[in-house]
Amino acid sequence: MNASSKNNRILVIDDNPAIHEDFKKILCGGVSGGDELRDAADELFGETTAVAERLIFEIDSAFQGREGLDKVRQAAKEGRDYALAFVDVRMPPGWDGVETISRIWKEHPDLQVVICTAYSDHSWEEIIRQVGRTESLLILKKPFDNVEVLQLAHALTEKWALSHHVNNRLHDLDRLVNERTHDLLIANANLQKEAIERERTQAELRRSEERFSKAFRASPVPITIQTLKDEHYVDVNDSFLVMTGYRRDEVIGKPPAALNLCEPGASFDTLSALLAERKPVRRFESRLTTKSGEVRDVVVSAEVFDLGGEPCVLTIAEDVSDRLALEQQLRQSQKLEAVGQLAAGVAHDFNNLLTVIQGHASLRLAAKNLDCGVTESLSQVGMAAERAAALTRQLLAFGRKQTTQVRVLDLNYVIERLAKMLGRLIGAHIKTRWELLEGLPYILADEGNVEQILVNLALNACDAMPDGGTITFRTSVSEIDAAYLARRPEARAGKFVRLTVSDTGHGMDAATMGKIFEPFFTTKDVGKGTGLGLSTVHGIVTQHEGWIEVASTPGAGSTFEVLLPANEGKIDSHETEWIAEEGLGGSETVLVVEDEPAVREIVRVALEEHGYRVLAACDGPEALRVWAAHSGEISLLLTDVVMPSGITGCELARRLRAERQNLKVVVTSGYSGDIVDKDLLLKEGMIFVSKPYKAAGIIQAIRRCLDTAAAAAA
């Protein structure tokens, strides 16, 4: 890309004039310590550039979102588009940064954007839902580093210029191929019509053929010339040989059928019939088999013309396999997101119902002298509710919406502790091998989620070996470098802990492997599987910023490899002690805030049966009124997170804590974990209990919270 193709125009949209001055100092060469910035830029971009050649950016300013959109429009009208915009998130009054970006992208989608923010008003997921894309969007935290701003400016303006350069280049190549093809057809027609001027025509033909030959050979798109009658290849360009894997001498003089390039069928017959009638073919979808046996998807355009008095076919075959694969990945991602959103939407109401079922069942089971039949029925009700809760967690897991409580873990320790249970699940007909690397780095993960990964992979391996076999569990460390990333686009650079689960089962073909992570896909008989096992694993691993690699051959078993980021933290050895049933009682006053009446009632009954005094409220405003009347009596707040009337559970806790800092708080939710203010829980020492929960479980959490307060006071 030459210098003339670069675009150094940058727009800063921020309501703070000082921010504009900072950007101008950094990007227009006015900042002190310019030599230091230049040295940093040289190190970042891997090259040493003379000072005279260094790009100085042209900075324009807008102080509100609407003004920014007007300037983008005016720049486009003048033919001087902006390459990059730095946009502040907060710009009162008027549009905020996210709305500004959305409105600009509706008209000018090529603009690269950096969001500048010192707050966390919008999560990354909220921003993406509003703007609808991520490929041209980055986030810059305030206060920002000068070198980081300079790096972003260089990289994103270069990206804008490269995108425009590539688009122009592709357009030129397409035009060149069409022009050369048209020239060849005209030259052949002139050869038949202008016999009198044979010498001149032949000279012109040679010149035309030379032009076509250069375009033909140099074209990045595979092009062939075949005889119309017997379909023998007359000539092919290098791109066609690269795509098919054949040498030129293996192709010339042979038809596609002799090379097994095209499989006979309806598609091939339709293409042949159109060419036989001398009809041009445009954007015809077909498939091609390479020398190695790989099947590639191609889009074919063909034209019949006369070459030396013989009808021939000029064919352009565009390989679209990679594009189709990316489209399939996008559809799969959208499908998972849609089901995940659905699961998250129903989880709240469903978990509230399960909380009521589990709460009443556990309360009644705790009663003495129950009839055996009643005890059995209540036990079955409780187990059914547990299975329903597990199913809800699975749905949320593969949709990456479930609540997680991450901490530093030793993966080997988790595997060893789970080994006995896995042995019972796997059965005696299957052998297990354990190859755990000593000194394995720690990971930052939710322990329950890691156990779920192990169990699901183990059960999946068992299903693949109905007649017995061997499952191998292995841990290792992998350093992911650039070469690895080139082979695995879903990977990330850095140090990763690798969990490998291999079996000696019947394996999978390519078609099955392409669907195994789809929700509800299963190879089991109807009624024998939910199809959520591997999709759950995929969701958990993705939520933990890792990925899964799968290798399988029919009849030769399968290998699943889970890679999770290594963590240098220390393991928290603190283990919560379980409180015995007789230690759960108390006489403290608990404020219960829950908008679901049935859940509020079961919590009230459970607490009062254990001696606690209960004050109840259906929402935040009512809770504030109860607090105003009884603040001196209340020892603990138990609140749902999401409630009507405009005050969430976390907001209610903040208000009450502002009046009494030592107020103990337990928060609950039946929604997915991303709606919980985890920073607040961590900072304020609150306890979170996810729904559904048993009566004993919520009382256990309350008692532990109160006892922690008493111990701290002592």
Structural description of this entry:
This protein is α/β, with parallel strands linked by helices and 714 residues long. It has 4 domains: 3-166, Response regulator (Rossmann fold); 219-319, PAS domain (Beta-Lactamase, 2-Layer Sandwich); 411-567, Heat Shock Protein 90, CATH 3.30.565.10; 581-713, Rossmann fold (3-Layer(aba) Sandwich), CATH 3.40.50. Helices cover 47% and strands 21% of the residues. It contains 22 helices and 22 strands. Strands 11, 12, 13, 14, 15, 16 and 17 form a 7-stranded mixed β-sheet that branches. A 5-stranded parallel β-sheet has the order 2-1-3-4-5, with helices on both faces. Helix 2 crosses helix 6, helix 6 packs antiparallel against helix 7 (198-218) and helix 11 (321-365) crosses helix 18. The protein is globular. The termini are far apart.
Descriptive terms for the model:
714 residues; five-stranded parallel beta sheet; Heat Shock Protein 90; seven-stranded mixed beta sheet; 22 strands; Beta-Lactamase; single chain; alpha/beta; Rossmann fold; 4 domains
